[in-house]
Amino acid sequence: MTGEVAVLGAGMHPWGKWGRSFVEYGTAAARAALTDAGIDWQQVRSVVGADTMRCGYPGYVAGATFAQALGWQGARVTSVYAACASGAQAINTARSQILAGMADVVLVVGADAAPKGFFAPAGGERPDDPDWLRFRVLGATNPAYFGLYARRRMALYGDTPEDFALVKVKNAAAGALNPNARYRKAVSAEDVAASAVVADPLRLLDICATSDGAAALVLTSMDFARRHGAGDPVRIRAVSTVTPTYPKAVLDLPDIATDSAAAVDPLPRPFRASIALAAYEEAGIGPEDLSLAEVYDLSTALELEWYEDIGLCGAGEGAKLVREGATALGGRIPVNVSGGLASFGEAVPAQAIAQVCELTWQLRGTAGRRQVPGARTGITANQGLFGHGSAVVAVR
Amino acid sequence: MVAGWFTQDSGEEDFRLLGTRCTACSAVFFPREDSFCRNPACTGGELAEVPLSKRGRVWSYTDGRYRPPAPYVCDPDAQWEPYTLVAVELEAERMVVLGQGVPGVRVSDLAVGMEVEVVPGVLNEDGDTVWTTWHWRPLGVAS
Questions:
Q1: What are the angstrom distances between the C-alpha of B17 and each of A123, A245, A290, A364, B31?
Q2: What is the structure's pLDDT at B137?
C-alpha cells in the first residue's frame, strides 16, 4: 500500500514516579527506539516531539528539546500539542512528512513528568479559558466527567460498578506482565470496591493515575525500511485525527455545556465512534479484522464505551464483552493487553505513542507473556481535550 | 467572574441562565457566544441574548469527594464537603448544561431523568463580595 509507513523502532522509559526531568525520560525512550530500529541518531532526518505543557519552556518546544538532548545534528523539527492526543498527532505529523517525501527517517518522542493528584489548568486569572472556567465555576475535575459518563451508562444500559471493576481486574492482570508498566500487581474486584470513591460512582481504582513516563517510535518510508533490511516491518496504515461534527451532543472535557441541537440535528453516530470509523475507512479494514486494540481507559467505564465506539459490539453491550472475557488476554478480541492506562497511568504526551509501541511489539510477536497469538492488525484510540481524538491502525 | 451567564438581581423565581441565539439559524449557545455563530452551515447572524429554560431533566450526575485544585476557591482549613455536579438536558434548547447541585443535595437524592430547576447560589465569598453562580435543584426540594 502506498499510504503506509514502517515502524522500525519502538522504545519506552518505564512509567512510574521517578522524580526526574521529562527530557531524561524522552531521551531514554528515543535511544531505546533507535537501538531497536538499528538506526544511528545521525540518520534521523526529522524529529517530532509531543509537547509537555506542565514542564514550561522546554516542554512547549519538545521537538527541539529532545533534538538538543540527543545532540544537534541538523534534522528538521516539529513540536505538537493536542493534550492526550498529542502523541497521535505527532505520529501523524511524522507519517505525513514521510509520505510527502520530506524525510525518510523520523523520530517521534513524547515524555512527561506529571504531578500527583488531579490535573489542573495553567495558573492565573484566565476567565477566557474554558478549561480554567470548569475548575473555577464548577470544580469539575477530569474524574468528574468520567463519573458523569459512568453514571449515564448505569442509567441507560444497566452497567454496574462491578462491571467497571472487571475492567480494572483485567487490565491489572495484563499490566502485571509488562515491565514498562507502573503498576505490576494483580487487582481483585474486592480491591476496587474497597478503594475510596473519587467521583461517584467511580472509585480510585476505576480512574487512571498520573505518571512519569516516555515513549518513542522510529518511523521510516517503506523504501528506506527495505534498504535497511526490514522486508516485513510493522506498518502504520491509517491515522485518524478527526474533529466532531456540529452539534456535538455529548458533554466533553472541558465543556460546561454541549452544543445545542435546536438548529441542526446531531448525527446518529457519537463523535468518539467517528474517530475509529475514519481510521477503519482509511485502512480499508473493519473491527472484524482486529487482533487487538489499545484504547484510552482513563476510567474503567470509559473503556466499555470504547468497545462500542471502535465497533467491537453494539451500543450498551460493552459490559457484556468484559463479563464474557472477550477483551481479556486469551479472549476473542483482547483490549489493553499492555495493561492500559490503568497500569501505566497518564504521561500525557507519551501515552498515544506508547499505545503504538504496544501494537508494534504485539504485531512482531515479541510481547512475551502478554503476547496475543498471531496478531496481525491492531487499532489504538484516544481522545484529547476539547473532544478531538485520534486512532492509529497498524498491520503486519 | 462570568459576566452575563445568568440574570443578576432577580429573585429565585425569575433566575435564568443566559445564552445567545443566532438570529439567522436559531442555534443557541451557552456559555454565551457573542462573536460568531458556530453552526458550520450558517453564514452568520446577530447573536441575541436569550434566557434558557428554567427546568430540565438530569442527563447524568456525580460528585467531588476530594477537593478540586485551584482555581476552585474553597477554604483549605475547612473540612471538605463533597458537592454534586449535575448535567441537565434542556428540552427546548436541546442541550446539556453542567452545574453544581444545590448545597445539601447528594447523589443519593438524584436520578437520571429527574426534573430539576436552576436557582441562584453562592460560588464563594470573602469579606466584601459574594460571587453568585447557578445551581440545579431537584423539584420539590427546598434550598
A1: 27, 25, 47, 56, 9
A2: 98
Residue B101: closest C-alpha in chain A: A138
Give the residue on A whose Cα is nearest the Cα of B17: A257
Q: Do B39 and A200 touch (CB under 8 A)?
A: no
For the segment A199-218, the average pLDDT, to the nearest whole number, is 97
Shortest CA gap A147–chain B (Å): 6
Pairing of strands B47-51, B95-101: unpaired
% residues pLDDT > 90 (chain A): 93
CB atoms A140 and B98 under 8 Å: yes
pTM above 0.95, yes or no: yes
What is the CA A90 to chain-centroid distance, rounded? 12
Question: Which pLDDT value is given to residue B9?
Answer: 80
Interface contact flag, B29 A260, Cβ < 8 Å: yes
Interface A-B, measured as beta-carbon pairs within 8 A, has a size of 145
- Average pLDDT score over residue span A61-87: 97
Question: CA A243 to CA A229: how far, in whole Å?
Answer: 38
Give the closest residue to A161 by CA, choosing from A130, A119, A205, A117: A205
The domain limits of chain B are 53-143
The pLDDT score that the predictor gives to residue B1 is 61
B111 touching A, CB under 8 A? Answer: yes
Contact B22 A144 (CB under 8 A): no
- Location of C-alpha cell 531514554: A28
pLDDT, residue A80, reads 97
Helix axes A300-309, A271-283, angle to 10 degrees: 50
* A141: chain B residues, CB-CB within 8 Å: 64, 68-69
Q: Is any Cβ of chain A less than 8 angstroms from the Cβ of B48?
A: no
Residue/partner pairs of B28-35 with CB below 8 Å, 24 or more apart: B28/A260, B28/A262, B28/A263, B28/B52, B28/B93, B28/B95, B29/A260, B30/A256, B30/A257, B30/A260, B30/B5, B30/B93, B30/B95, B30/B97, B31/A130, B31/A133, B31/A256, B31/A257, B31/B2, B31/B5, B32/B4, B32/B5
Pairwise CB contact (< 8 Å): A259 & B93:
no
Query: Which amino acid is located at A81 in the chain?
Result: Y
Of B27, B64, B72, the CB nearest to A260: B27
Reply yes or no on whether the pLDDT at B2 is more than 80. Answer: no
> Where do the domains of chain A lie, and which CATH numbers do they carry?
5-116+213-235 (3.40.47.10), 130-205+239-395 (3.40.47.10)
Which among A258, A267, A302 is the top mutation candidate for probing chain B, defined by the most B β-carbons within 10 Å of its own β-carbon? A258
pLDDT tens column, A3-59: 999 999 999 999 999 999 999 999 999 999 999 999 999 999 999 999 998 888 999
Interface confidence: ipTM more than 0.85: yes
Q: Band of the pLDDT at B142, cuts 50, 70, 90?
A: low
B72 has a pLDDT exceeding 70: yes
